[in-house]
Design goal:
mainly alpha, elongated, 5% strand, 58% helix, binds zinc ion
C-alpha cells in the first residue's frame, strides 16, 4: 500500500522535530567552533592525574554520544531527502514498500522488516 500524502506529511514533520531534538542535544555537548566542524567540549577539571583521567573519560563519553547523534541526524536528513525525491518508504535492499507502522515508529527506516 503506497503512502498517502497525509501520512507522508506527518512523517516529514516527525522527522523535522526529531532533527531539531537531536540538533539541540548536539548543541548541549558540543560548542560551535570557527570551522564548520563541531568541537567536543573538553572540560578542564584539574591537573593531577586522577582528575585528568576523569576528563579523558568524559571527553570519550561525549564523543561517543556525539557520534551516535550525528549518525541519527544523517539518517534523518537522508530520509528527508528521500521524501523530496519521492523514493521514501521503499526498502533500500529489495525495493518493496516499507510497512507504514514501521515508518511511523521509525521514520528514518531504510529497510523493510524482512531485509
Ligand atoms: Zn526489503
Amino acid at each position: 500500500m503506497p503512502l498517502t500524502k497525509d501520512t507522508l506529511l506527518n512523517l516529514n514533520s516527525k522527522l523535522l522535530s526529531e532533527k531539531e531534538r537531536i540538533e539541540g542535544e548536539l548543541n548541549c555537548i558540543t560548542k560551535p567552533s570557527l570551522s564548520s566542524n563541531r568541537e567536543t567540549i573538553f572540560n578542564e577539571i584539574g591537573t593531577d592525574e586522577d582528575e585528568n583521567a576523569t576528563e579523558v573519560e568524559e571527553y570519550t563519553d561525549n564523543l561517543a554520544i556525539e557520534n551516535t547523534l550525528e549518525k541519527q541526524l544523517e539518517e534523518i536528513n537522508a530520509a528527508l531527502i528521500r521524501i523530496k525525491q519521492n523514493s521514501y518508504g521503499k526498502c533500500e535492499i529489495c525495493g518493496s514498500d516499507i510497512n507504514i507502522e514501521r515508518l511511523k515508529a521509525y521514520p528514518s527506516a531504510r529497510k523493510c522488516t524482512l531485509c
